[in-house]
């Protein structure tokens, strides 16, 4: 698979959409000027972090399966971080945390056909050696902060890309969940609901108990907030 290395770019996901959507390719940038986060947010992408977009084309990939793309990305990141002796957890749907702080964000942008996903762009921003801004320090962490030393970014990158090429299951994803059975918040359009998180099902829905009723929530509907963590 071709790897395109860029010094500086607005966003690796945007680059892929513009230039390389027709091949399986990995685009990596040392720095992003306009890194994109979920829900239209900005993703701070200073030097020292790992900013990767992984483009994969599919044939007959039903879009009811899109959660599997996210699972793959999350587990690939968790396994990469674990290889350095750091213990990750996932926050549904697609954040990876370490000690309750975010270490990685994932933005998946799919190009859709009539009933299927034609191409997915899996954008991953992993905090490795980057220095966190003051606003981020309380809610985010980096691999180097966890290890107490700088890491070789090229090695971390190589391991992440190798892991992204593998296939994982929902069971693999759930091994990184440490909040089943806990009371959590679900946020949607400024409204907050309390729930007990019970499971993540095969479709990627969060199964939870809301006022005695078992409900399945999709990640498009609501956002999970963990009570005991800063995020
Ligand atoms: C989030 O946590 O809000 C998702 C952040 C995703 C950031 C990555 S960095 C590589 C790729 N390019 C982007 O512009 N965004 C994603």
What does this protein structure show overall?
The chain has 231 residues and is α+β, with helices and mostly antiparallel strands. The chain folds into two domains: 2-174, 2-Layer Sandwich (BirA Bifunctional Protein, domain 2), CATH 3.30.930.10; 183-226, Roll (SH3 type barrels), CATH 2.30.30. Helix content is 22%, strand content 39%. It contains six helices and twelve strands. The strands form two sheets. It has a seven-stranded mixed β-sheet with strand order 1-2-3-7-6-5-4, with helices on both faces. A five-stranded antiparallel β-sheet has the order 11-10-9-8-12, with no helix packed on it. Strand 8 and strand 9 form a beta hairpin. 38% of the residues are buried. The mean pLDDT is 94. The protein binds biotin. Biotin is lined by residues 11-13, 32, 35-38, 41, 43, 45, 51-53, 105-107, 123-125.
Quickly list its features.
single chain, alpha+beta, BirA Bifunctional Protein, domain 2, SH3 type barrels, seven-stranded mixed β-sheet, five-stranded antiparallel β-sheet, 6 helices, globular, binds biotin
- What number of domains? 2
* Shape descriptor: globular
Which fold name corresponds to the CATH topology of the largest domain? BirA Bifunctional Protein, domain 2
Major sheet size, sense and barrel closure: 7 strands, mixed
In the predicted model, the low-confidence regions spanning at least 5 consecutive residues are none
Heteromolecules bound:
biotin
Mean pLDDT: 94
CATH class of the largest domain: Alpha Beta
Give the CATH architecture of the largest domain.
Answer: 2-Layer Sandwich
Write the H/E string, N to C: EHEEHEEEEHHHHEEEEE
Q: Return the structural class.
A: alpha+beta
Helical content, roughly? Answer: 10-25%
* Strands side by side in the biggest sheet: 1-2-3-7-6-5-4
Summed up, the helix count is: 6
The proportion of strand residues reads 35-45%
